[in-house]
Design a protein that fits this description.
Layout lengths: L1 E5 L2 E4 L4 E8 L6 E8 L6 E6 L6 E3 L7 E6 L4 E6 L8 E9 L13 E2 L3 E6 L1
């Protein structure tokens, strides 16, 4: 399975970005999908996750109310809509897949597949 993240870039504080993660190699219909991020000098942290049916989602406190995770199973793609971006959101964002539900996709040790990251930079 390959996960390809895209949609990162440079945006001013208060702006929006939508990240996409396309999966190839197999259908991820039984996998929870998640987004993590890693800022310079910091550990990778959980951002948001979604179950394979899209019925359940989890968000980190830092993402609640500003970010929305969604998925299109027909396209084998997961999205992260990020609004009201802050400079502290600056990081490399990684998509991930875990066998199981949205909880599994929120725990690094449960992740089965990681994608390459996409850089998000928020200027003040």
């Amino acid at each position: 399975v390959q996960l390809q993240a895209s949609g990162g870039g440079l945006v001013q504080a208060g702006g929006s970005l939508r990240l996409s993660c396309a999966a190839s190699g197999r259908t991820l219909s039984s996998y929870g999908m998640g987004w993590f991020r890693q800022a310079p000098g910091k550990e990778r942290e959980f951002v948001a996750s979604i179950s394979w049916s899209a019925a359940n989602t989890y968000y980190a406190d830092s993402a609640k109310g500003r970010f929305t995770i969604s998925r299109d199973s027909a396209k084998n793609t997961v999205y992260l809509q990020m609004n009201s971006l802050k400079p502290e959101d600056t990081a490399v964002y990684y998509c991930a897949a875990a066998k199981g539900g949205s909880f599994d996709a929120s725990v690094s040790s449960h992740i089965d597949y990681w994608g390459k990251g996409t850089q998000v930079t928020v200027s003040s």
